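Field guide to reading this record: the first block holds the primary sequence, the second block holds the structure written as discrete tokens, and the final block holds curator observations. Each block starts with its own label. This record concerns Sugar O-acetyltransferase, catalogued under organism Candidatus Bacteroides pullicola.

BLOCK 1 — SEQUENCE
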Amino acid sequence: MDIFEKDLSGAMVSPDEPGYDQLISTIFDTMKTAAEMNAKGWLSQEEVHDYLHRITGREIDPSTTLLPPFYVDYGKNIRIGKGCWIQQGCTFFDRGGITIGEGVFIAPKVNLITINHDPNPDNRSATYGRPIVIEDKVWIGIGATVLPGVRIGYGSIVGANSVVTHDVPPMTIVGGNPAKFIKAIEIKDKH
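BLOCK 2 — STRUCTURE
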């Protein structure tokens, strides 16, 4: 298992491991590509998608919109579904893996953080990741932060400035710090 596979697996990764310098170099290259995109000013979505392809190594569906600036660390562990809308100023630290379903709305300044540090102060520079999964048709409000290992269920809403530390069940609204259940989303028949 190389350093990239180990990092994605959730195992602890420390700066003294073989390949760590390659991991950091890749992160800096990705950050440089994102900074280049962000410095360009207004870009067409085709141009943004070209940058996202360079960052993620994947094609982004034309129905998905991302508005720079956009901040990212590794990039290669991001998967974005069709019909998503990702606003300005979002930060995706994806070393643990970020999966975004279809039709997801992500408001400005949302942070998706999959990496954490060893709680032992003598080993604090070591990190480990946990994936974030955002299911279809989720709406994440402005300034929210989603922490490592969280799954946000289908159709849910995360309130503005919330800090999501635990899974969110489908069709619910959560908010606060830490985010707590507010209510279930009920769809009323329009007839």
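BLOCK 3 — OBSERVATIONS
DSSP finds three helices and 18 strands in the chain.
The mean pLDDT is 97.
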